[in-house]
Amino acid sequence: MQQQEIHDFLRTYFKANDCEILDDTPSHLTVQLTIDMDKELMNRPFYWHYLEKTGGIPNPAAITFITDPERAPAELKGERIHFGSPRLHQIIQSTKKLAGYTRLFEYTPPVKGGNHPLFPWLTLNVKISYQCDRKKDIFMSIGLNLISGEIIEGFHKRVLPVKVTPKIPDYSFTLSPLIMPKSGLTRLDTYIRTSFEDDDHSWAEEAMRRWQDDLKLLEHFYKDIDEKSESYFTEKEALKAQYEPNIRISIINGGLFYLSDRALG
Amino acid sequence: MKINISSNSEWNEEFLQKIESDGPWGNWELYKLAVQMEENLIIPDFEGLQAPKHLPHLTPLPHQLEAAKQVVEKMNGKAILADEVGLGKTIEAGLILKEYMIRGLVKKVLILVPASLVSQWAFELNTKFHIPAVAQRKSYVWESCDVVISSIDTAKRAPHRDIIFNQEYDFIIIDEAHKLKNNKTKNYEFVQNLKKKFCLLLTATPIQNKVEEIFHLVSLLKPGHLGNASLFSEKYKGKGKNIIDDEHLKELVNTVMIRNRRADTGIEWTKRHVETITIEFSPTEQALYDAVSQFKPISDGTKGSAFSALTLQREACSSREAVFYTLKNMKAKYDDPSPDYTAKLDDLFTKVNETVQNSKAEKALELIKKIDDKVIIFTEYRATQLYLQWYLQQNGISSVPFRGGFKRGKKDWMRELFQKNIQVLIATEAGGEGINLQFCHHLINFDLPWNPMRLEQRIGRIHRLGQEEDVMIYNFATKNTVEEHILKLLYEKINLFEKVIGELDDILTKLDISNIEEYLIDVVGESKTEGEMKIKMDNFSSLIQFAQDMKEGEVHAATGNS
Question: In this prediction, does ipTM exceed 0.95?
Answer without folding.
Answer: no
